[in-house]
Amino acid sequence: MLENYRSPWLTEDLESFKDMVERFAREFIEPYELKWREQHYADRSAWLKAGELGLILPDFPEEYGGAGGHAGHYICVLQTMAANGGGLGTGLSHIVAKYILDSGTEAQKLQWLPRIGTGEVICAIAMTEPGAGSDLKSVRTRAVKKGDKYVINGAKTFISNGQTCDMVLVVAKTDSGEGAKGISLFMVDTRSAGFRRGKCLDKIGMHAQDTSEMFFDDVEVSEDCLLGGVEGRGFYTLMNQLAYERAQIGIAAVAVMERALRLTLEYTKDRKAFGQPVIEFQNSRFVLADAKATVLASKTFADLIAQRWVDGSLDTTLASMGKFWLTERQGEVLDRCLQLFGGYGYMSEYPIGRMWADARVARIYGGSNEIQREVVARSL
Fold first, then answer.
1. Which end of the chain is more exposed for a tag (fewer CB within 10 A), N or C?
2. Helix residue ranges per DSSP H, the chain
3. In this structure, how many other beta carbons lie within 10 angstroms of the beta carbon of residue 132?
4. Within 10 A of 204 (CB to CB), how many other CB atoms are there?
5. Which residues pair with 123 in a beta bridge?
């Protein structure tokens, strides 16, 4: 489809790995996507299979339950999972694991990472609150030290994997008078007394992945649940990792665009109107030509982000640029592709309609695109 273009970071070894990931998606995601959308979560058996194949922490050291690869291996997983839209939130568990790997104590790494890597432990991260979204300094959830324990109280919302997670990384204030310096992160076992899941939220899209409210009513956790063992490091840890989350969103947007263009080309070549294939109409060809150019331009941008990620030079500005620009191109391409499907494009039985609905949130989560523009503007 994008003839003669090869991602510069994609080595032969990575291509072989990506082939394996795509086989996993065809066998363990595609056949179950509609079922997962109806039940609003992915089956745990798929998580365990992904763990068995080393797809949850492919770039983590083996001593911590990873597959011993590098960032390129994870990007291959990310692209494939995003394109297939099955709702298997391996990326979210990966994000939480990355927090633990980079900022946790040795005991915390050994306690959590191997089980995350196998799929035994599904993770969520609880940042957003009813009154605090992108403004993390305004969170109201509190963690008060009492002896050798912390008592957590608060409410969170829009939490991905909220219904299925076994551990949630909670953003909480340990010192309300210190602003950003008063924020800490806690690993909370969801079997803890006082933890309560709210309803599974009814979203416009992303129906195969659960999104929930969470409530913490005097939830007691031991002091070794404080990430890194030091209070007040939470905001720094979040900011240090958000670039990777935003890079993921941008790279995933391009993977979805590529699949949308491929599906639309197939459909317009097969579907006939007024006695000829839809692709034979000049308007269709022009729309698809524009889409192809946009996808190629987006892919080269995403590949720059991926290359910087692989070589360790990814920065916040580039990640934020990619997040807002690529997700907006994603919206444009999917909307124009859906139009070429006509009424069928609006039916949930066709992947293009599901992809279109799922994509809208990409401009909101991970920090809204307005916030990303502000981040980039500070670098001018």
1. C
2. 12-28, 33-39, 44-52, 71-84, 90-103, 106-118, 234-270, 282-311, 316-340, 351-359, 369-377
3. 17
4. 9
5. 167
Q: What distances in angstroms separate CA 334 from CA 208, 248, 252, 298, 314, one per listed residue?
A: 19, 19, 13, 13, 27
Where do we find the tokens 């595609």? 30
Going along the chain from its start, the domains and CATH numbers come out as 12-121 (1.10.540.10), 124-231 (2.40.110.10), 236-377 (1.20.140.10)
Query: What contacts 245, CB < 8 A, 6 or more positions away?
Result: 95, 366
With tokens 């002091």, the residue in question is 223
The strand pair at 167-173 and 183-189 is best described as: antiparallel
Kindly state the tokens that stand for 96: 């939480």
Distance CA 358, CA 206 (A): 5
Q: Are 220 and 150 in contact (CB under 8 A)?
A: yes
CB distance 216 to 153 below 8 Å: yes
| Catalytic (active-site) positions | 245
Local confidence pLDDT in tens for the 380 residues of the chain: 677 889 999 999 999 999 999 999 999 999 999 999 999 999 999 999 999 999 999 999 999 999 999 999 999 999 999 998 777 777 889 999 999 999 999 999 999 999 999 999 999 999 998 876 566 667 899 999 999 999 999 999 999 999 999 999 999 999 988 888 899 999 999 999 999 999 999 999 999 999 999 999 999 999 999 999 999 999 999 888 889 999 999 999 999 999 999 999 999 999 999 999 999 999 999 999 999 999 999 999 999 999 999 999 999 999 999 999 999 999 999 999 999 999 999 999 899 999 999 999 999 998 899 999 999 999 99
Total-model pTM: 0.93
d(C-alpha 221, C-alpha 33), whole Å: 36
**Given the DSSP bridges, would you call strands 272-273 and 195-200 parallel, antiparallel or unpaired?**
unpaired
* 16 in Cβ contact with 57 (< 8 Å): no
Tokens 């551990």, located at residue: 167
